[in-house]
Amino acid sequence: MVVDLGYGATPVTTVELHDRLRRVSPTVEVIGIEIDPARVAAGQAVQRALGRSGLSFRRGGFEIPTDGGVPVTVVRAFNVLRQYDESAIASAWARMASRLTPDGIVVDGTCDELGRISTWVTIDRTGPVSLTSSLRLRDLPTPGALAPRLPKALIHRNVPGERMYDYLRAWDTAWTYAAPLAAYGVRHRFLESVRSLDADGWPILGGPSRWRLGEVTVAWEAVAP
Length: 225
Hints:
The chain is an alpha/beta fold. It has helices at residues 12-24, 37-50, 89-97, 152-155, 163-177, 186-199, 208-211; strands at residues 2-5, 30-34, 55-59, 72-78, 100-111, 117-124, 127-135, 204-205, 215-219. Strands 3-2-1-4-5-6-7-9-8 form a nine-stranded mixed beta sheet, sandwiched between helices. Helix 5 crosses helix 6 (186-199). The longest helix is centred in the C-terminal third of the chain and has 15 residues, at 163-177. It is globular. The two termini are 31 Å apart. The mean pLDDT is 96.
């Protein structure tokens, strides 16, 4: 079971998530959850019009209401926690994580309006695990451009003395040193910058197959407040 928490004024993201997941798992169930009854009603109207199985909408919040309290495998909460005070983040994470299956995750993310810059924290039942950045390379001035789109837990931590600040400064430095490779294309420059981060001891997770897509994941302890 997968939850799209706080899908917004229209249920587009929930429907798209259902579309994509059904291609790889035909029996997956996707639930869109919103706190606003009008938004829930709009989602239910869309579901009835589409007549899709495994897609539903209901009212709720971080408690993740499911039938019979069934735990969920994935909670996607994009551009939701940015509306809250930083002091509320840890308790929201813990509440959502308590609703997970043993191998489940919460994805607390933020993106720009066009989805060209996106970041998210992955949380499991033990707490935050990693920070991932996904960047559209053709539009990338520097990796540090992702700073305004950091999740709420980190957006105010991009200041001297914080790990988040050090990480972005190190990545921008690696990007600068990789500038000669721009002659071969921005992807080559980007790959070299991430390899440099990895070689310098930053705990980069995953490998080149993800980096080539503009996606880089670092262990949480490297950027944690």
